[in-house]
Design brief:
CATH architecture of the largest domain: 2-Layer Sandwich
Number of helices: 10
Number of strands: 7
Strand content: 5-15%
Distance between the termini: 31 Å
Helix content: 55-70%
Shape: rod-shaped
Radius of gyration: 45 Å
Structural class: alpha+beta
CATH topology of the largest domain: Heat Shock Protein 90
Largest sheet: 5 strands, mixed
Order of helices and strands: HHHHHHHEHEEHEEHEE
Number of domains: 2
Strand order of the largest sheet: 2-4-5-7-6
């Protein structure tokens, strides 16, 4: 936020410096460079800059949010007309131009610099300047009888205005330049605030979408975690009822699982090693409950320590394997493999299908939530293939990292 505000301040300062430089460039003209200092010291120059700066910020920070955004177009138009009338009355541009023209005339009517040395004596009579006529000056303009010549030493040059000078200084009935500047400043101010408002709207929409996705993920995790803990507690209860000696070890493994679920699973991504450890503890709990009728083939390979993964994504499939792929009366086999390559995480699980298991139960809350989480956290970077063939239920999941 601080960087954005600093950027806006720099843009505004640079824009106004450029705007203030235009009068200096256009009004300096063919006069010496000292005229630029004269323009800067002129109060009409600062009146010109201050007037249009006030218009810019008045329209951008008051009229635009209070009137245009609220669709009060008639009031906005009325106030805009009043503002133009005020600019027309102040005449900041006209006064600045007239002040510059007067300064040019003062410079042009200054007496020329004369050489203090005596002119050389020329013996050629034809080269001598002609004497002044008594009744006319060199420009053949009449002068009062007996008066000194206009170009005599110490006398300023006379300035004779041209045909258009009679209208100089009069207020124009309709100043197109001021109208153009007024429209340009109002349009630029409105466009600037419109772009900022559009960017703000886009940021709010993006933030709202991110908040919505975060809320959905939190809700999905809240659904997964109780479901997983419920199944695990049932397993420990079974061990306790059977008075199994492995019950204390099971409680320790459950403690490790709960620590992972409550602490690490709150993040969007965790170490793949943590996910594998949680799965391993869960499988060990299941081994104690199932006995020798179920053969479990579990393995993890590759560079597990350097990979990250969304928490509890793989655990959902592991839960379903033990929930729907185990029979109390028949032998069953479960295969769970996790491998990490340079750019991918590959998960594979397979279990037998028993006729008394309703297939609709396999599409429970956990699997649906996992699909949604994959769409949120791995958009376009995951491939999930679930097959049910040859009396085997298989899940292949590939995550790009």
């Amino acid at each position: 936020m601080v960087r954005v505000k600093t950027y806006l301040v720099v843009v505004h300062v640079a824009g106004w410096l450029l705007f203030m430089a235009f009068p200096l460039l256009f009004m300096n003209g063919d006069v010496s460079g000292g005229n630029a200092i004269g323009v800067l010291l002129s109060p009409y120059y600062w009146l010109f800059c201050f007037t249009y700066a006030v218009l810019f910020y008045l329209n951008g920070y008051l009229l635009f949010p209070w009137l245009l955004l609220k669709r009060r177009y008639l009031v906005y138009t009325l106030i805009t007309v009043i503002l133009y009338a005020g600019v027309y009355f102040l005449q900041p541009y006209d006064k600045l131009v007239r002040r510059n023209e007067l300064r040019r005339k003062e410079i042009s009517t200054m007496p020329p610099m004369r050489d203090t040395q005596a002119p050389p004596i020329n013996s050629d009579p034809g080269s001598m300047p002609p004497p002044h006529d008594e009744g006319f000056d060199n420009g053949r303009n009449p002068r009062p009888p007996g008066g000194p010549p206009p170009d005599a030493p110490g006398m300023p040059r006379r300035y004779f205005p041209g045909p258009g000078a009679a209208n100089f200084g009069r207020h124009k009935p309709f100043d197109t330049t001021s109208l153009f500047l007024f429209i340009m400043i109002i349009a630029l101010s409105t466009a600037t605030k419109s772009i900022q408002q559009w960017q703000l709207t886009e940021q709010r929409a993006t933030q709202a979408e991110a908040d919505k996705a975060s809320a959905e993920l939190s809700f999905l995790k809240a659904q997964i975690n109780p479901h997983f803990l419920f199944n695990t507690l049932n397993n420990i209860y079974t061990l306790s009822v059977m008075k199994d000696d492995n019950a204390p070890d099971s409680i320790m493994k459950l403690s490790n699982i709960m620590r992972y679920v409550t602490d690490d699973a709150n993040a969007d991504f965790v170490s793949l090693q943590s996910e594998v450890d949680c799965i391993n503890d869960y499988i060990e709990l299941q081994r104690l409950r199932l006995g020798k009728k179920t053969i479990i083939d579990f393995g993890a390979s590759g560079n597990i320590e350097s990979k990250s993964i969304a928490p509890l994504v793989l655990m959902t499939f592991v839960e379903n394997v033990f929930k729907y792929g185990v029979s109390k009366h028949e032998e069953s086999g479960i295969v769970i493999k996790i491998s990490a390559t340079k750019n991918e995480i590959i998960f594979f699980c397979e279990n037998s299908i028993f006729q008394d298991i309703n297939e609709n139960n396999r599409t429970g809350i956990g699997l649906k939530n996992t699909r949604k989480r994959l769409e949120h956290l791995y958009p376009g970077k995951h491939l999930l293939a679930i097959t049910n063939q040859n009396n085997l239920y298989t899940v292949n999941l590939t995550l790009q990292t």
